Amino acid sequence: MGWSLVCPAVVILLLMTIAPTIYLLQSSFFSFTLLNPELKRFVGLQNFVQVILDPTIRHGILVTLLFVVLAVGIELIAGLILAVALAPRSLGNTIGSTVLLLPFAVTPVVSALIWRQLLNPNYGWVDYYLQRLGIIGRPIEWLSSAPTAWVAIVGLDVWQWTPFVALILMAGLQGIPKEPQEAAAVDGANAWQTFWHVTLPQLRPFIALAVLLRLVEAFKTFGTVQILTGGGPGRATELINLTLYRIGLQDFQIGAAAALGILFLILLSIIVSQLLQVLGKNTELLE
Amino acid sequence: MPDIDSKRMPLKVAGRLVVWGSIVAALVPLIFMLITSIKPTGDAQTIPPKWVFVPTLEHYEAVFGGQTSSSQAFLPLLWHSAIVAMCSTALTILVGLPAAYALARVRFKGRHFLATWILSTIMFPPIVAAIPVFIIAGQLQLIDTYPILIIPYTAFNLPLVVWLLRSFIAQIPAEIEDAARVDGCSRIGVLRKIILPLVVPGLAAGATLSLILCWNEFLFALTLTRSDVKTAPVGINEFTGMFGTQWGNLTAASTAIVAPILVMTLVLRRRLISGLTLGAVK
């Protein structure tokens, strides 16, 4: 009974997760390019050795980890502040929580294209109004140098996803019981002490959930960065997803892409299994 | 106690500033998009940016009439996106709801393992699946067909939807079900007559999330479609062609992509917020 109800969902999931993994695992032991499929030959672990020794790949993994940590870290802190400000029920906050639903529904490809126009050094709003406010002297070519390109990709992710984190935490703040906070206030705790020692621990399940969902999605980031910087300048913002796309689906080096894909999967499995344990400890979502 | 109130005053002001600052920050890119889409071509790219101009619908006419330098008329692309999003969402609910019910209510061997495994597939990066799917779809001649988008999208949204529905179902008191079973209702009957009506809010949240995610998907659509089922997020890139970006057309097309989901989001906002917390908050 149980299995027959679960079966269709499991089949579709197997088809799109385990099956591709097996295919990749098998391809990773071959020298295999789609441009010349007849030349497919067994090379053992050579693809893995190549991928591990390739400095651009190591750079790609570091870029990915840095992006995920920066983006999710900023989103968590800013989201927490925003959630606290949004939690009291008032007209302004109702408007706020409604408007803040918008960014995360915006098609990421569209937000990247809009971002590119806003950051355009000739006609973009950002450079013009920063100059008018006297913050910068002359226009910045945001996407032409590595540090500013990083500001752009992290900034876009923060714009798109901070409200998502804030709304989860706001729902949490509105749902937790108020008595412990009142008791702390009566006992003479100031606002900051109450927040740090009482509210924050109560909020832990929601923080765990928001961080898990955001981390998982941040590791999958592809379209926004592909459109905003294309991984550039040079390879400065080339996330591992962009590298995989370039090697596998543009250069058609299936063997090398497969090896990199398998390594990426192993890395992600380790991170996510740790996260699920944290989630399991802090919430009832895993029973 | 006026004492405490006066101490809390600066905090309140700071809170207001944070909220209104965030509202402005959230809206600026959307306002830019909307304004640029109705600016006459000559006024779109100017320094300083023009705030006073005669609004025009020329870009919308160009985009929908197919009179742009992009290779394809835009309206069919929106249609492709809508078909893929609706079919995939329907399939996700169809296979996700029974699975969620079984994981929440039916005691069977391996249930806990299955529940954890389904949730953990949420981390599976689409790019890793895209490469094998691209090769096999090529061999089976499935490139540029609807199923080759619908099946992967369903798989990517299933973990979230199953998880959400499972926690909604778990919150329905088991006594209601037991009473119906005692009265001779079959398990399927219970699912249809008792669970389904009670789980409608969860279904709305899950379906909305699934529609948004399908409508916005880029990687698989880019890899697996050419022209017959090319979706809007892929097609919109053609407005940034080799002759420089056509800001008016690009923002008009952007508005056309984003408008339906923004409206849906606003209409269903309560459901969405409860969905975001996977049903942990009602």
Overview of the molecule:
The complex is a heterodimer of chains A (287) and B (282). Chain A has a single domain (31-282), classed as Orthogonal Bundle (MetI-like fold). Chain A is 73% helix and 1% strand. Chain A has 15 helices and two strands. Chain A has a two-stranded antiparallel ribbon with strand order 1-2. Chain B is 73% helix and 0% strand. Chain B has 14 helices and no strands. Chain B has helices spanning 2-37, 41-44, 58-65, 74-105, 111-120, 126-139, 147-170, 174-182, 187-198, 200-216, 219-224, 232-235, 247-267, 269-276. The longest helix of chain B is centred in the N-terminal third of the chain and has 36 residues, at 2-37. The interface between A and B is large, with 98 and 104 residues.
Strands of chain A, total number: 2
Relative helix content of chain B: over 70%
Major sheet attributes of chain B: none
Our estimate of the beta-strand percent of chain A is under 5%
Task: Please give the alpha-carbon distance between the first and last residues of chain B.
Answer: 34 Å
State the domain count of chain B.
2
- The oligomerization state is heterodimer
Greatest chain-chain interface? A-B, 98 and 104 residues
Unreliable segments of chain A (pLDDT under 50, ≥5 consecutive)? none
